[in-house]
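Handout, page 2. Input:
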Amino acid sequence: MKRLLLPLILALFAAAGARAADVLVLCYHDVRDEVEGNPVQVLPDVGRFPQVTPGIAAHLDADQYATSTRNLAANFDWLSAHGYHVISLQQLMDARNGHAALPDKAVLLTFDDGLRSSYTKVFPLLKAYHYPAVMAVVGAWADLAANGKVDFGPRLYTRDDFVTWEQLREMQDSGLVEVASHTYDLHRGIFANPQGNQIPAVLIPAYDAQTQRYETTDEYTLRIRADLVHSAEEIRAKLGRRPRAVMWPYGGYTGMSDAIAASLGMSVSFTLGLPVTFPDRPFGNTSLQAIPRMVLMSNPTAQNFAWSIQHPVLKSDIRAVQVDLDYIYDADPIQQERNLSVLLERIKTLGVTQVWLQAFADPGGSNAAAAVYFPNRHLPMRADLFSRVAWQLRTRCGVEVYAWLPVLAWQLPDAAMQARLQIQPRSGMQAEAPVRLNPFLPETRTLAGDLYEDLARTAPIAGLLFNDDAVLRDTDDLGAHVPSAGPERTRALIAFTNDLQARVQRWRPQVATARNLYAEPVLHPQSESWYAQSLPAFLSAYNEVALMAMPALENSKAPDSWLRKLAQEVGSVPGGLNRTVFELQTVDWRTRKPIATSKLTRQMQLLQSKGVLHLAYYPDDLKKNNPDIGKLIPAFSASDHPAAQP
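Output:
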């Protein structure tokens, strides 16, 4: 099995926290005396992802996760010389359970995969420095037959590459090493969709190409439980102690997998990644589950190690593209793959950080979902395409993928149900487009929640973008006992989206949220009574606000002045510019003509001159190269405009 780790790590840099408020958790892999080349560096002037130092790419070691014995010792030296305290798993558990405080500059060392070097190279250094560590073992690899092989990265690994149970017992008995589960046999990819993408085995239900069906939720949980039971029982039988921690392979996990591990005594779980945070929302984690770890890649010298340790949080200005999956879909699978390739190239070229990916089909532009691009319980599936495109974007472009879905605008195949659930206009009033379901009806909550959870089952998403259909108007007949005032309706819709997020979190516990916001409630807050939308309320409720900074949509006669005013109003709200993404339009929907890229770039530059940090645009017409990405790069690309570092 080829390593899935590198592309997943690049995606996870944006998805999780590397430092859990009171402790920095480091993750190493193989340690060898000789490792070729220079390190991958995360430097202030290269943005959010690791970059290879110019001119040395050809000289890097084939195993980018290997660290030389010399450099590991140098890393340990640096920690010791700069006042860091290497702690044990027990100390972390005691601190999180409120029994003891951790020392300042606490560091937890972890070593993944159960490689032989953990005994031959790492253990002697741990003894020399008197440092505790957690070592995660893959049971199937520790049990590998004498002639067995594991396809694990740069070469085929054999029995001699992995630590033995006797060596693990010796390290455990020293009092320095705690052995954790790295699962028994889930450190591999499984087929996850009809197109054959391989995704980490814990992260997703398996897809069976022969039967053309996905695992059910019950089948998924049985598979994960059986593996973790096997792992925990084997560690107990071989070492005399049950594992208290699990290191999720590739950092991939679900809410259910964490719950299963905890029920088996593995109350501490670890994932992977570095965070991107906003100034008004510091990172922090006081839980013992899903603790992120900083992955040490490409043999860091003391200098590179020091920079990474001192900058565990990376900030990035958001550069988002809202993508219509309708532009990718084609009845001809060959043409569909061509379309996907064009999209991937555009996203990579632009240095995009987030893609807000349409999960529903709306080829007619009605803004209501009558079909979707994922298997589900309630609506026709136009094509099983979302997970394929989302995974390619995540692994090949290193972006966060947000699933873009309606909140209320569902067009159901059951006409009687649609009529029963749909919002009707008050007597004498005209119905407002798009059609929307009444969020105050229990059936609506269940149906929408089912759809959101069904998407999360088959697609490892980083976030949700709640569509602009989430509005409640004065003209809506919402039935009895429904809030009538604008702020109360705003809060009610936020609560509805919170319920949708909770359904998704069963599969994607760390899912972030963004919500579309019309410009009018920002420019004229009294219009909240018409939209049930409010910038301050959204900033309190969601990770990001996707502000529709679209002067043509609002029929503005003076677009530049309108944008300046919009930026000024957002800046006047505490935290407004830190977490508001200004989304511009690339098409004038009144005339159905594209907006010139030169005009789009000028608008972006105008907004940036007014302090705007985060930019997005919609739509992206990949077939017509609208916008022209070559012309857009100077004003938009996150690679050209990295965030200022602390």
